[in-house]
Write a structure and sequence with these properties.
The chain has about 230 residues and is mostly helical. The protein has one domain (about 55-230). Helix content is about 75%, strand content about 0%. It has eight helices and two strands. It has helices at about 10-30, 35-50, 55-80, 85-100, 105-125, 150-175, 175-200, 210-230; strands at about 135, 150. It has a two-stranded antiparallel ribbon with strand order 1-2. Helix 2 (about 35-50) runs antiparallel to helix 3. The radius of gyration is 17 Å and the shape is globular. It starts with 7 loop residues before the first helix and ends with a helix. The mean pLDDT is about 90.
Amino acid sequence: MKGSKMDLPLEVLILFVILGVFSALSFKRKLLNFEGVLIANIVGIAIFLLAEGDLKYFFVAILFFAVAEAGTLYAANRKPRHETRTAGNILGNSGTAILALAFGFPFGFFAAFASALADTLSSEIGLLSKRKPVLITTWKKVEPGTDGGITPLGMAAALAGALVIAAVHFLFFQNWFLFIVLAVCGVFGSLADSFFGAAFERKGMLNNAEVNFLGSLGGTALAWALVWLV
């Protein structure tokens, strides 16, 4: 339910308290650089405004970052590496979701984050696979970490990520059909990301943020098509 004139001040207070805690933790733990923290705050406020004060959408964005970071830390504990996310990462993962809200397609917001979370978990958890990945465009084995490489473990992680967002949507709207659509679109978005990574990022034609944006755009476009058909 969207915020009314009476409860909107409380929702604004909740928004800024969460953003403040999020910013402090992200910067202190070096999850984001300063520019990334700034852009993340702008994205959070933009989502809140485009959703007309409905905190559900803001919480989905926070949930995405929390689960994505948990997946990154889980993988890093087993294969140590350090990566600080930047403004480009934030915009690449949230850009399509913001556009979906701006163009009046709130379900597309969920589809975009289902795709983004599916791709993030696929990339992070997939690196733990004992099997070498195959390139999505050729199905030839490649080295772990290669743009466009996929593994069964990574695809399972992608499905798990999509199901997280689908479950949250179901919690809000109790629609099994849309739950299934989100799960499918999330995995599709992750595969689309891998395709663009193999076809363009490996050749230096696109960067990671642009590939992330196109992957989530693919998942959102499929969501629009499926909802429109039904």
